Amino acid sequence: MTRRAAVLAGLGGWIPPMRVTNEDLAAQLDTTDEWITSRTGIRQRFVVGPGVSTSDIAVEAGRRALDSAGVSAVGLVVLATSTPDHPCPATAPEVASRLGLGEVPAFDVAAVCTGFVYALATAAGMVDTGIATSALVIGADTFSTILDPRDRTTRAIFGDGAGAVVLRAGERGERGALLGFDLGSDGTLADLITMPAGGSEQRSSELAADESDFYLSMRGRPVFRHAVTRMSETSLRLADRIGWPAPEIDRLVAHQANIRILTAVGGELGLPADRIVANLDRVGNTVAASIPLALVDAVGSGELTAGHRVLLCGFGGGLTWGAVGLEFPELPVQPLPGLATRVLSTRTK
Ligand code: COA
Predict the structure, then answer these.
(1) pTM of this prediction?
(2) What residues act catalytically?
């Protein structure tokens, strides 16, 4: 008997319309387009405007994934986000309702930039075991809402966005079946990427000693080092677990944090540059949305096609990391909307 598996059946993404270029940042902060491009590979990112929240962009991405799958109902919604609309309740139930999905189970998963891989594993497990027959898995974050406007490092890196997939119950031998996961974490390094205040430890009801505690703080250098090591290790473990020799991976779709990280991980896996998907130049690091947005872009450009052996790999705050492999299915995918839309004027006098 063929083993039951969760199968990728739909894919969609959304980025908000307001574009912030490196030049926009250079007009406000002590940075240059040259520095940002050469150190990160990022040229622009998109941000939500006032009044637009994570649920808004999650709904847009979710709708596109449902369209791609050709379905109007699913049995489960899992939203990966570290910037929920509110600390309480979770954002997923509201997203499910706004998508007209009825009273389905819906909850958030918080694993920062690894959130999408964790959410995918959670949903796949529920589909594998028959708890749900299908699932909408969304990765959506609006990190622009938690960045210190004076911080040239984080503002250069992070952008907002949402990406989503539909999973259906199927069989392991089918194209699109999620073949296995590798997941991990190291909480001893929690302080490398953190927003210290606003939780139960340093409460938002008390005035923080330092207002910067309400902004994201990141120690770039060690994060870079751990990203390369952990993404390489988790990818190699996963490839071994599902019986793929690493050099036979057709496309590595890894978390889009820094082009130098992607190149280094590709090198560790023995993959040439043309097998490493990168769209961070146009959207920046979109946190939980980064992997599905890279998938949408790669399918749209023809870089990723049905039959490719694809390894998805995430790394982020926590620290957390994870990988999943699949043979990519045929999917209709709408291109990302805003890549050539209006520019947000962020220039100060
Ligand atoms: N423009 C100009 N200079 C900048 C800058 C910017 N946007 N951001 C940082 N710098 C400066 C630093 O202040 C530092 O100056 P100093 O030497 O006077 O102190 C200098 O550049 C070097 O900083 P460093 O952090 O060592 O640079 P780096 O080459 O490591 O690049 C990152 C910085 C953040 C781009 C890089 O460390 C990185 O990508 N880290 C991983 C980030 C990431 O992936 N986060 C998400 C993980 S999920």
Answers:
(1) 0.95
(2) 113, 255, 285
